[in-house]
Structure prediction request, 186 residues.
Amino acid sequence: MSAAQHGNGPNPDRTRECVTRIEALHQKRERAHMAYMAECAVIAEDVKAIVDEAKTAWGIPKRALKTVIKVRAGERRLAKLREDLEADDQDSFDQIRQALGDLADTPLGRAATGETFDGDVRGTDQKDREAFRLEFEGKDGDKRGGKGRRKRPGDDALNAAVSTDGAADNGAAQLATGLRPLKAVH
Prediction:
């Protein structure tokens, strides 16, 4: 019979002693966790104050600033993951990323593929939005100075299908747009 055994079950005194010691360690861990969380709350308040200052003093959008911080932290984590690999695995990692096209939109990826770099690091979606904005608003940012609504595919077909009095001819407008013409209510 082991030392902890007593009659038909564990020794109550030894069991109580183990439970008490374990609970004391749990309480110690909880106190340490609470102290850590209090320290983290102070740091979070400092970060919030800097973000608020950036917004009020310099007009930096809060959401964009926070997103940049998160992206940079993610990039550092990814770089560390790659650095933790051995040299052969790093080469394989780079080859796999290149095969997937993961590096194609970065300046480094363009340099590796021999594509010229114009210094504009914005993604294609940002460039497209800027081109649309310039087309719609005009170069000076005046919404009235631009060309107005952007021409969409199917506009010509719709215009050709609608007669001068505004009524659709032979369902052509429905075919061009996929929408049924409105019925006149008298």
The helical segments are 12-58, 62-83, 87-100, 107-113, 124-137, 155-161, 172-177.
